[in-house]
């Protein structure tokens, strides 16, 4: 499992782009994790799945609500990573009013999640390989803070916990 002080793995995540802009086409776009975090402070939080109860009721809404406070403390971007495709993550982002606050990053094949060592097998629950629930602060591609939840818990990966580590 990735640890504090480690560099993020070489991986690609996908984001659904709905507005034409420089360097991006409309639809799913791939983003190199190391390039996207270079020279930036980024909060990355991972969770089991889009539209799931705790993820939709607490995890994403907390980061959407506190995005301004996190930016005021020097965070350049906030990423939500889930083992879902870019279309699902885009729809979930619209539902959660995340636009401009939280980037909804798809890890459809769980390649990034596996490279972090933060995967979990939820096949018995019909979900396949998914991400554990976690949050990290990354500075220029290096993990500075890593909070991984115990199974079934939501106590250390919420926006409030990350705010507390930055204050």
How would you sum up this structure, described in words?
It is a single chain. This protein is an alpha/beta fold. The chain has one domain (12-166): Glutaredoxin, CATH 3.40.30. 30% of the residues lie in helices and 29% in strands. The chain has 5 helices and 9 strands. Strand 8 (134-139) and strand 9 form a beta hairpin. Helix 2 (53-72) packs parallel to helix 5 (159-166). The longest helix is centred in the middle third of the chain and has 20 residues, at 53-72. It is globular, with a radius of gyration of 14 Å. It starts with 11 loop residues before the first strand and ends with a helix.
Summarize the helices and strands and which ones pair or pack.
Layout: E1 12-17, E2 27-32, H1 33-37, E3 41-47, H2 53-72, E4 77-82, H3 86-96, E5 103-106, H4 111-116, E6 119-121, E7 129-131, E8 134-139, E9 142-148, H5 159-166
Parallel strand pairs: 3-4, 4-5
Antiparallel strand pairs: 1-2, 3-8, 6-7, 8-9
Q: What's the gist of this structure?
A:
This protein has five helices and nine strands; from the N terminus they run ββαβαβαβαββββα. With 167 residues, the chain is an alpha/beta fold. It is globular.
């Amino acid at each position: 499992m990735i640890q504090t002080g480690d560099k993020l793995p070489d991986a690609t995540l996908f984001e659904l782009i709905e507005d034409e802009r420089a360097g991006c086409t409309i639809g799913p776009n791939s983003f190199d994790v190391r390039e996207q975090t270079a020279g930036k402070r980024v909060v990355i939080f991972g969770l089991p799945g889009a539209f799931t109860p705790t993820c939709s009721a607490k995890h994403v809404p907390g980061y959407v609500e506190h995005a301004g406070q996190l930016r005021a403390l020097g965070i350049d971007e906030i990423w939500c990573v889930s083992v879902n495709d870019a279309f699902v993550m885009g729809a979930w982002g619209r539902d959660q009013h995340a636009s401009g606050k939280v980037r909804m990053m798809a890890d459809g094949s769980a390649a990034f999640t596996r490279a972090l060592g933060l995967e979990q097998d939820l096949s018995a629950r019909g979900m396949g390989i998914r991400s554990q629930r976690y949050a990290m602060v990354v500075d220029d591609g290096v993990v500075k803070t890593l909070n991984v939840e115990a199974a079934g818990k939501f106590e250390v990966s919420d926006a409030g916990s990350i705010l507390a580590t930055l204050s």
